[in-house]
C-alpha cells in the first residue's frame, strides 16, 4: 500500500509539474491574436478619421436651397434668359420651385435675389428618365471657356441696372470668380470634369488665412487640365479618404463646403457655411445607389459572385448583409492607370501647402491634404449606374473595363442618359477612327488614357459576362 501511495504521489507531482509548465507556456504565448489577412501587392490601407454628425433632413434642405454660394445672376435676368423650369424634381418651394435643379435662388448679402449654381451641377444626373441625386454628372460640357459668358453677363447687368446698382454688387463676386477660373478649366472632351483644378485655381486667388480675394493668383498653377469622372456620393459612407488619390483626410464636411470658395467674402462667411455642412454630410451618408432596372440572370449572378470573391474582393470589398471595404490605396505601378490625375492638383506642392496652412486646416473640424501615389480601389455599390469607368471616364462599359485589349481608343456616345447598353453595362458608343472633336473621347491625350486595371484580362468570355452580371447586382 505504501508503495502504491508513493507511486500515486509521484504521478501527482509529475501532473503538477506538467500543469505548471503548460501554464507557463500559455503565459509566454499570450492571448490568441487573429491573423490579419495579407494585403494585396502594391496596396496601402487608409486609416479612418472621426467625422461630424448632423441632421440629414436639414442637410438636404441646405444642399438644394441653402446660401453656400451667395453671389450670382440677378433672379430677373436668369428667368428672362433661361425661362422657368416647373418640374421641381427636388421638391423645393418659392422661387426654387421654378428653376432648374442645378441652381438655387438665394438672397445676396445686400438683399438682392440672385440665382447661383449649386452642388448638384456635378453631383446629380438623369438616368433612364429619373434624376439621381448623388450620381456624378458625366454629361456636363466643360470644353469652352466660361469666362466669356461671365463677361457677357456683366454687360447685361450693367445695361439693365447700371454699374453702381445693387444688382451689380450682388453679382460681382460670382462674375469675378468665373472670369478668373474659366480659362483654366477647359477640357478636351465633353463628359469629364475639371473640379480638382477649380479648387486649386480658387485657392490661388484666396488669402491663406482669411480667404479674402486677390485679383492676381498668388501660387503658380500648372497649365494642364487633368480630367476626372465625378464619383458617386453614396460611396462616401465607406471611404476613409476623399478624392481619387486619397488626398482628402480628416473632416469631410470641410472639404465639401469648399464650393463656397467660388464667391465667399471672407472666413467669417466660410465659418457660417461650414456650420451647415455637418448636416449636408449627414444627408449624403444616407444615400443609396439605384437598383439595376433590368432583369438579372441569377445563375450568372451567382457564378459571377464566385469569380468576384476569388479575384476582386481583396481590393474592392464584399457586398450584402455583412459588407466590408478595405480602403486600399493601390500604387500607380500596380494599377497601371493614367497617372496624371494622381500627380496633379491635389498633389501639386504649392496647392497642398496652401491648403494645409489655410483656414480649412484650422480646428475645430480641420481638414488636411495628404496625397498618395496611386488611386483608391473604390467601393462598387451601384457601379452599373456610374459609367464611364476609371478615374478619368475613359472606358465606356464594364465589359471594356474587364477586357483592356478591347477598349476603344476613340469612342463617341450620344449623351442621352437612356442610351444604355444592358449587355456590356455602360453607355452605347461608336468606335471612331480619330479624335479632334470634343464629342469624341480620345484616349491618346495626356491624362485621358485608358490603360491599366488589367485584372480582368485573364477571364474567358463566359466568366467575364458572369462577372459583369454580378456587378450589375451591387
What key attributes describe this structure?
34% helix; globular; 474 residues; 16 helices; alpha+beta; three-stranded antiparallel beta sheet
Which range does the strand content fall in? 5-15%
Globally, the shape reads globular
Instruction: Give the low-confidence spans.
Output: 1-30
Cα-atom radius of gyration = 27 Å
Which strand order does the major sheet show?
A: 1-8-10
The number of distinct helices, counting runs of at least 4 residues, comes to 16
The beta-strand count equals 15
- Name the structural class: alpha+beta
Binned, the helix content reads: 25-40%
- Straight-line N-to-C gap: 77 Å
Largest sheet: 3 strands, antiparallel
Rounded mean pLDDT score: 92
Structure notes:
The chain has helices at 2-29, 56-65, 75-82, 120-123, 147-161, 166-181, 195-204, 252-256, 267-274, 277-284, 298-311, 313-316, 332-335, 349-357, 398-401, 461-472; strands at residues 43-45, 73-74, 103-107, 113-117, 124-127, 130-133, 248-250, 328-331, 367-369, 374-376, 410-412, 420-421, 426-427, 430-431, 440-442. It is an alpha+beta fold and 474 residues long. A hairpin with a 5-residue loop joins strand 3 (103-107) and strand 4 (113-117). It is globular and about 70 Å long. The model is unreliable at 1-30 (pLDDT under 50).
